[in-house]
Structures are given as C-alpha cells and as structure tokens.
Write a structure and sequence with these properties.
Chains A, B, C, D: This is Glcg protein. Helix content of chain A is about 45%, strand content about 20%. By secondary structure, chain A is α+β, with helices and mostly antiparallel strands. In chain A, strand 1 and strand 2 form a beta hairpin. Strand 2 of chain C pairs antiparallel with strand 2 of chain D.
Chain lengths: ~140, ~140, ~140, ~140
C-alpha cells in the first residue's frame, strides 16, 4: 500500500499531541514514503533551524536501510566504519539515533518512516510510535 | 516578526484549498522561514517523488535572494550565467520559475517564502499568494 | 502497485531484444521504482563506461518530475533555466532527452520508469516502450 | 580480459540462487567492471530502497582500492582516519564491510567486483563468491 497525505498528517498531529501532553520540548516531525521522499513535515515554534535535517536524516536512514534509526545507532557503536560509510553512500542523509521509526502496513510491507527530533531521542521515538498507531500502521522503533 | 507554524499551516491549507477549488493538479506546498529552513510541507496524493525538491528550490532561491522566483526566471533569461552561478552557490537549491513567493510582514520585513509545485507555474504562484494572504502576510510573487 | 524484479527483468530483456532485432548499437537499460531507486540494470558489451549514469539520469528525471524525458528535453529548449535548475535540485540526476519512459499500471498510477541509452534517443525510447508493454505496463514516452 | 555482460548476469543469477537455497534475506547484487562502472544489477522484491547504494559502495570501494571490502573493514578498525578519508575521496562511494568481492581472471588481473547487500555481510560475501566462480572467475573476498 501507498502512504497517503491524510495518514502522514494524522501521524504528525498525533506525535505533536503526544509531545504536548508529555511536556516534551518543541518537536519537528517528518513523514517519508517508502522511497525516502517527503510527504509532510511540521516544525514546532521555538525549534532551532536545523531540525528538518535531523528529523529527515533519522527517517531517511531508517527507510533506506529498512532498519529503525535506534538500531542504526547501536550498529554505529558496534561497527562505526559501516554506519559512517553508509551515511556517505546516502550523501549524509542518515542520522543513526532513535527517533526514525519504520512504518509497516497490515501485510508487514515497509511503506515509509516517521522521523522526529526535538526532545530526547527516546521521547522522539515514543511520539513517532504514537503517530504511526493513530494512522493504522505498525511502528518499528 | 517570526513566522509561526500556525501561519505556515494556514498557508498550506489555503493554497491546497485554492488548488482544489480551481481544479489544479495535485500540489506540493512548502513554507520556509527567513533563514530558508523548512517550517512545514505537504505533498498531495498522486504527485511524483520529486515535488519536494522543486517546491523547496523555488522557495529557497526566492528567500535566499530576496527576489520572487518568477523574477529569478526573468533574470535567468536576461543573464543566464548569473542565475546558473547563483544556483551553484546554493548547491542547486534554487529553481527560478514562478511559484516561489516571498512572505512579508506588516513592516515589509521578509519573514520567509512559500514554494508550490504541481500545476502551471502561474497557478502554483496564485495558490501561494492565496495562502500568504490567509495568514495575514503580504505576498510578493 | 509495486513494480517487481521479474517485471524489471522482462522490460530489460525485451528492450535488448528490440535493440538487437532493429540493429541498434549496444544498449544500457535501467528500471527504477516510483521512488527513483534502481531495481535492475544491464549494459551491453561494447558500451562506454558512462552509460549507467546517462540511462539512470533519463529515467530518474522522468520519474521525479512525472514527465517523460523526451518532454523534459522540449522543456529544456523552451525554458533552459528551469530544466538546468531542476537538474541541480536533483544533484545532476536528470538527463532531459528521449529514452526515459514512464511506467504506469492499469489504474494509471506511476510505478517507475525505464531509462535507455546507446542508440539515437528516439530508438532508445522505442526499445523502452517495447519493454514496458511486454511487462503489462503502459508506457509514456 | 574484459568482463562481459553474460558473465555479470551469471554472477547475479548464481548469487541469487545461492541466497534462495541458503534461506538468506532478499539480496541486491551489483557487478562492476575494472573501472568501477555498473555492468548489471538486480534487487530482489522486499528489499528497502537503499540497497543499490550499499551494494554499489561495497563493490566500488573494493575495486577502486584493489582490496576486498572485508579487508577494508579491518583497515577501518586499524586506521579509521585512512578509510574515512578514502571514502571521502570517492565521494562516499565506499562501504567497508564484507560483501564487496574482487573478480580476477586466470592471469590474476583485476577485472571487476561484485557487491552484495541484504543478509549478514558474511553471507553476502558467500553469495558473491559463488557467483564469481560460476562465471569462471577467481573471487577474492
């Protein structure tokens, strides 16, 4: 299945609501399709200028590798040269820390990723999972 | 003044409504702040994958140069080497055709730009102007 | 629908057979998915080293813009600054001459593109259309 | 000798058959010539979008350096600054983990490389060696 803009908007709205409810810092939330292309993005007021690149890099690395960005972060500790090189292969568009969450449909197919940046990376990931579930998708964080 | 996410969301919602009302093709709409950084983006269903890059390039070129992208297109005809070189200076992040609309506040200060891609570039710009006005801003297209 | 590797292989085999049958020069044929990512590629013996980049650029520009590369070439004559800038926005991955053919499924949805380089660009496109049709897809050249 | 497309196709078909027989995850397999240019590539269904870049980076780093990518990974542990810098010198087109296998002819001359990504890097390399041998080449993994 193909992710719709309505689903992407639901993911972003829910992730932001989760952040407000839990008292997180301002969040930036991007939703990418399975090809790593941006469907929707919002950056909350008070965020620094670089949030798009960080949120995008979390989601892009995850969807390109088929691996949640939290796991990419563990791999970066185990084999730093591999993750550094993969980042180079993706022209720097890979940020290997939690907050890049894979989105799967009911058949398990990878349909995209949500990337969040703003609070701790664990909280970022929690907000992403909440968003994914609200859109009827399975999150892999 | 600083552009807020609420204003960016209003710009996008209004531009999209304008597009639907006028029977335009699926639109992609990005709002950038005065630093050229993404505040919000939405890509309507049925758009090809490259729409973010084109919409972003229109808005980014406009806000970086302080000139609407339609005027950058005229400059590209008058002095092609200048606009080509400026595009290189911005790492390719400049698309000099209509649809990158400057956003100004009540004092005339440049606060950002909206970039639209999907229909004819004239229609793209019309949708952007509608969005800007709905957010209480002055559009320069 | 998602393009399969078997479909991509059929496209390549048929395009190559068309080229042999019509006495074309050695062909290079790439098939991309809707996100612009490579599914399959073959370069016939006797081709120069740069054929992958050219075939890829034709198909990538087409699928990113949702426009066959032949039409991108016409646009490059009408508005050279636009097509030059779009190429920059895609990091040079756009070659606006015939031979980048859009692939659509039965519902008309864009599912990818085939890019061919080696003979005249008109012949390149003919081979791509033959490949697309053999895979049960609608070609837009 | 110069690697032919038929040899490249044999390498890919055999590596894929090896993967299916051994129950590996979906594989992506690229064959490069001695100049580091793509001869053929196939990405099995169910692979994430970034597989071409990773498989290519393994093979490209190997053939550019004349060293199997597994050995580049060991060098990355011994002298991280060297491998990081070499990756930069090749514009990020070098992924120093197993799965980029050198291809040599009967005289020992380097004629290209096969790069595989999808399963563990050790399994990736095994599939590449099987492919090389089926094409009458000596594999250096």
């Amino acid at each position: 299945m193909t992710l719709t803009l309505d689903q992407a908007r639901t993911i972003i709205a829910t992730a932001r609501a989760k952040g407000r409810e839990a008292g997180m810092k301002p969040l930036s939330v991007v939703v990418l399709d399975a090809g790593g292309h941006v469907l929707a993005f919002e950056r909350e007021d008070g965020s620094p200028s670089g949030r798009f690149a960080i949120a995008f890099g979390k989601a892009h690395g995850a969807v390109m590798m088929g691996v949640p960005s939290r796991r990419l972060g563990e791999m970066a500790v185990e084999r730093p040269h591999f993750i550094a090189a993969a980042g180079g292969a993706f022209d720097g568009k890979m940020v290997p820390v939690a907050g890049g969450v894979l989105l799967r449909d009911a058949t398990g197919a990878l349909v995209g990723a949500v990337g969040i940046s703003g609070d701790t990376s664990d909280n970022d990931a929690l907000a992403g999972v909440a968003g994914a579930e609200a859109a009827g998708l399975t999150a892999e964080a």
